[in-house]
Amino acid sequence: MDRLRVGVVGLGGNGRAFVRGYELSDLCDLVAVCDLNPVRVDEAAAEVCGGPQKYTDLERMLDSANLDALSVHTPDHLHADPFIAGLQAGCHVLVEKPMGNTIADLERMTAAARASDRKTLVGHILRFNPIYAEVHRRCADGDLGDVFYLEADYFHDLKRQAEPERTNPFIGGVNWWLEHEKVIVGGGAHQFDLLRWYANAHAVEVTGYGNSIAFPEMKHPDCMCAVFKLASGAVAKVGAAYGVVGPRPEWMNLEVYGTKGTVRNAQLITGDHADPTIEDLGVEYSGHPFQPEIAHFLQSIIDDTPTLVDAFEGANSAAATIMACESIEADGKPMAVPYFQR
Ligand SMILES: NC(=O)c1ccc[n+]([C@@H]2O[C@H](COP(=O)([O-])OP(=O)(O)OC[C@H]3O[C@@H](n4cnc5c(N)ncnc54)[C@H](O)[C@@H]3O)[C@@H](O)[C@H]2O)c1
What we know:
Blueprint: E1 4-9, H1 13-24, E2 28-34, H2 38-45, E3 53-55, H3 58-64, E4 69-72, H4 80-88, E5 92-96, H5 103-114, E6 120-123, H6 130-140, E7 147-155, H7 176-179, H8 183-186, H9 188-199, E8 203-211, E9 223-230, E10 235-241, E11 255-258, E12 262-264, E13 267-272, E14 275-280, H10 290-303, H11 311-329, E15 335-336
Parallel strand pairs: 1-2, 1-4, 2-3, 4-5, 5-6, 7-10
Antiparallel strand pairs: 7-11, 8-9, 8-15, 9-10, 11-12, 12-13, 13-14
Bound molecules: nicotinamide-adenine-dinucleotide (NAD).
Nicotinamide-adenine-dinucleotide is lined by residues 9-15, 34-37, 40, 58, 73-76, 78, 82, 96-97, 123, 125, 168, 170-171, 186, 288.
């Protein structure tokens, strides 16, 4: 098969990382880049050999660049329209996590995925991190027995997101991180997606609490904590906070408890509590594995194989965290979580 023709839309820090990633891949040619901001378009294009086509209008890029695949890196609350437009134009589509940050957007996006035969991949990059993939392998192989409780946190000092230069005149003059980001959706969905993957179950109900003490510039609470009831009967807890002092914990406090074993960060613990066997999972932590994620997306298209996190998987991870926010708004009232199926 010829190299795939890829276009990237949304050229902030994340989109630019993907521009560099596609540029390095042997499986594709990055033929077009798009942002509402023409300066970002020029800067991104300058990083690509051969000079990609440059666009400030996604519809025009989809009409004229003859793309096989579209990669969507717009802000969290602006994922739905480019994702749907890409599928409707016949492209395979990678969209950053969280897939959407409202249930209405997830409904529109999954409807578009259902109506399409193209591949979708939601950018839950932690699944491509060797240590987190190894924990999944151990869960799937039954080394932990029946999983009954899981927890992980997304704790970060992200107060720099209030910097005035982050206000984007091309999206209505807002700083989207302050106005639209929900910490348990934008950040915590990374962790919740892992926990759901390990438990092999979706969430059916969630209850949560939050506050706006540490980073009150955010419109939504900057500290959120939620407990999820999973369809398997397991219970999961995710904390997310952006006003943390100091570096984030390297392992994001991952704990998975099963009837035969426990995972605490990079260790698998089995045996008797008085004489446990502690196995180092032995896989190095690696930060943001964009390259394996990109390779997986492109190879899935070439081989016509399922992606690791398609639109329905991505929607189920996002939906539970969105409903956690609804519960937090309602002062802890339990909320049912919708389930998305192909
Ligand atoms: N996977 C990860 O680890 C990771 C890390 C960082 C960010 N992200 C995600 O990546 C996405 C982008 O984050 P960012 O920090 O780069 O944001 P950003 O705001 O810096 O960049 C987004 C860009 O999209 C452009 N844009 C918005 N709507 C557009 C449209 N309709 N057409 C063309 N361009 C449009 C904006 O002008 C902006 O330049 C977010 O969803 C974020 O959550 C993921």
